[in-house]
Amino acid sequence: MTRSAGEQPAQTSAVTRQPPTRQLHVITWGCQMNVYDSGRMADVLAPLGYAPTPVPEGADMVILNTCHIRDRAAEKVFSELGRLRLLKQAREAAGGRMILAVAGCVAQAEGAEILARAPYVDIVLGPQTYHRLPEMVARASRAAGAVIETDFPAEDKFDHLPDAAAPQGLTAFLTIQEGCDKFCSFCVVPYTRGAEASRPAAAVLAEARRLVAQGAREITLLGQNVNAWHGAGPDGQPATLGRLVRWLAEIPGLSRIRYTTSHPRDMDDELIAAHAEVPALMPFLHLPVQSGSDRMLAAMNRRHTADAYREIIGQLRAARPDIALSSDFIVGHPGETEADFEATMQLIRDIGFAQAFSFKYSPRPGTPAAGAPNQVPEAEKDRRLQALQALLREQQAAFNAACAGLTIPVLFTGPGRHPGQIAGRSPWLQPVHVTGPAELIGTEVQVTIASAHTNSLSGTLNQERACA
Ligand code: SAH
Ligand code: SF4
Ligand code: F3S
C-alpha cells in the first residue's frame, strides 16, 4: 500500500510528580520506536515540571524527534525548525523562553550541521542520550550556548531512565531491543541507532506488567531487529524472542502480543513455534524482504535468498495457518534490472501480502549503496513503484474482502466515526467499526464481518458481552 512507515505526528503525555509549571510540546516523525522514545522523553522531563501541551505556541520547550530513513530528511527538519524559530522569537520578544531541542536520527546523523545552520537550536541529542535530557535542559537554561549530545554513551540509557510513567492506553509500545549490526547497503539505522542491544528480560517483563496495570490489553514489542532480542531468562538460561513471548503471555490481562520489525535471518524455530502455541501472539507478522531477487538481496547485504524467505513463510503458515503477512519493499536499489524487479513481483504473487510498505530507493549519505555507480533513473523507480503498489493494493483488497463473513475477535479501543459506533482492531491489525455500546471499549468481543473497505472492516457484534 502507499502509506509510508509512520510519519504521523504523535501525542505525548506525562505523569507529573509536581504541579506542572512548564509546557512541553513534542513533534514525532518516523517509526514506532520514535513514538515510544517521545513518550520516554516526556517521562524524563516530568519531574522537572514539564507537562505536555498539544501545540507549540506558548510551550516552554519543543522537541522535534526526527527520522533519517529516506528522502530529504534534513530539509524537512530545517523547514520545521524555521517555523519553530518564529514561535521562539515571538516568545522571547514577550520576555519568555522556549528551549528548542532536536532529537532522533537526523540529530544523530547531522547534529553538527543542525547547529551550524540553525544556531537558535538549544539542544541536539541522539537516540541513545535521552536519559541525559534533564542535565542538558539545565545547561541550556543557563544559556551556556547550545548543547550537543550525539555520542553513544557507555552507560545504557534504559538503566538511567525512570520507569515509563505515561499510560499509553489499551494498545502500548514497549522497546525491547535497539540498534542494528546488519548494515544493509541502503540503510542509515546502524549509524543513527548504534549497535544492536537487548534490554534484560526482567526489565521488559516489569515494564509490560506496569503497562497492563495501567490498562494496556495489547503490547507491541519494538526493536529495529526485534527478533534479534536475546537475554537471560528468570531461570538464568539464555533466551530468544520466542521464550520472551511465552513469559509475556503469562501476564494476566494481557490478551494480545505483537512484535515489529523483524529480520528474516532472526526468525528462529522457537519463535515460529511460539506462533503455533501462544494464542496471545497475534497471527500477523511484518517481515521485511525488500526484494525478491537473489542478486539484489546480495547487493543489499540482506544475507538470505528469496527462497529462504519463502521457506520461512511456509513454516509460519504451517505453524499458524491464519497468519497474515506484511512486508517492506525497495524498488530501484542500485543495479536493479527489470528482471530483478520482476523477481520481486513474482515473490509478491507467490506469497500474497495482507499489507505492505514500499519505497523508492533513496540514497542515504554515508551508506554503501549511495556511492554505487549503477543508480536507477528516477522515472524507472517511479514506474516500478507504481506497478508494485498496484499489485500490493490488489492483494490487500483481496485479503480484506476474504474477511467478510468471518467471525473474529476485535479489541475495541475507542469510539467510532459516527455516534453509536465503536472502533477496534482485528487480529490482523485492520480497523473494525461496529454499532455498539461504549462499555465494550477495552474488551475483546466476537464480531461478524459484514463488509470490507479499502483500509477497514465493518460488522456486527456477535454478543454484547466481552469474550476475554
Ligand atoms: N529493520 C528493518 C527495517 C527498518 S527501516 C529491516 O531490516 O527490514 C524500514 C524500511 O525502510 C526498510 O525495511 C526499507 O524498506 C525502508 N528503507 C530503509 N532505508 C531505505 C532507503 N535508503 N531507501 C528506501 N527505503 C529505505
Ligand atoms: Fe536497516 Fe538492514 Fe538493520 Fe533493517 S536490518 S535496520 S534495513 S541495516
Ligand atoms: Fe527513522 Fe530512526 Fe526510526 S531513521 S525509521 S526514526 S530508527
From TrEMBL:
- Swiss-Prot/TrEMBL keywords: 4Fe-4S, Cytoplasm, Iron, Iron-sulfur, Metal-binding, S-adenosyl-L-methionine, Transferase, tRNA processing
> Per UniProt, what is one Pfam family of this protein?
UPF0004
> Which cofactors are named for this entry?
[4Fe-4S] cluster
Q: Which CDD domains match?
A: Radical_SAM
Q: Which InterPro entries match?
A: Elp3/MiaA/NifB-like_rSAM, Methylthiotransferase, Methylthiotransferase_CS, Methylthiotransferase_N, Methylthiotransferase_N_sf, MiaB_methiolase, rSAM, rSAM_horseshoe
Name a GO CC annotation attached to this entry. Answer: cytosol
Q: What is its EC number?
A: 2.8.4.3
Residues recorded as binding [4Fe-4S] cluster 2, renumbered to this chain, are C180, C184, C187
Q: Which residues form the TRAM domain?
A: 401-463
Which SUPFAM superfamilies is this protein grouped with? Radical SAM enzymes
Q: Does the keyword Zinc-finger apply?
A: no
Which GO terms label this protein's molecular function in UniProt?
4 iron, 4 sulfur cluster binding; metal ion binding; tRNA-2-methylthio-N(6)-dimethylallyladenosine(37) synthase activity
HAMAP family noted in UniProt: tRNA_metthiotr_MiaB
- Describe the family membership recorded for this protein in Swiss-Prot or TrEMBL: Belongs to the methylthiotransferase family. MiaB subfamily.
Name recorded for this polypeptide: tRNA-2-methylthio-N(6)-dimethylallyladenosine synthase
Species name for this entry? Limobrevibacterium gyesilva
User: What gene does this protein come from?
Assistant: miaB
